[in-house]
Amino acid sequence: MQIENLTLFHGLSEEETKRSMVCSSAKIETYEQDAYIFRQEDQPSRLYFILSGTVLLGQINALGRQNFIEYLGEGQGFGEIDLFLEHDIYDYFAFAKTEVKLLSVSRHFFYGTCVKNCAHHSRIIFNMLRIFAGEADKNLRKIYLLTSGNLRQRIAGYLLEESQGKAEVVTPMKREELAVYLNTTRPSLSRELSWMQENGIIERNGRQSIRILSFEMLQNILEGEE
């Protein structure tokens, strides 16, 4: 993904984007697969946007159990919550699931206009509000998913959301990671997926690929009619 295509630079010309890179002390960073971008105890200092690759966000609780997980891909940003709430340390970690290329932006860029009072600076701050609104919408949808009834309904809601109308759903999550995402255990998730397959609702094609055979039945499950 090209830098100018990021939501952060929406509405800016190529020249304005270049000037913004200088004003914000932005830099492009590459992380090898299986490398930490930051750990849960690190101090927030920069905002990150994914130019290529896949990033896993996760959280480990006091008992050492992973209780939060999310995958992010090209064009998405992360690190904004702890950064702008001025937390002393991150509440979660960021991990490169593949080789990742990131644009990172200094926190100081967002705390006022630069000395040159550049017009593009104000535009970027406005774009950040758009990004926050998008994240809030995504989190609301996740809350709806996780409170939409029993596990079978949550799985149905997840598959319908991820499919975007296409029969083939390829999730970046492994089975145990998907179980954490849906707030359940791996055996319980496997039982429900097996039930859906036995009833002709889905077909599992490998560990991370699911083919939807009946959108109608998934919708019925979600609405509590199955």
TrEMBL record:
This is Cyclic nucleotide-binding protein. Residues 149-216 form the HTH crp-type domain. Residues 8-110 form the Cyclic nucleotide-binding domain. It comes from Claveliimonas bilis. InterPro entries: cNMP-bd_dom, Env_Response_Regulators, HTH_CRP.
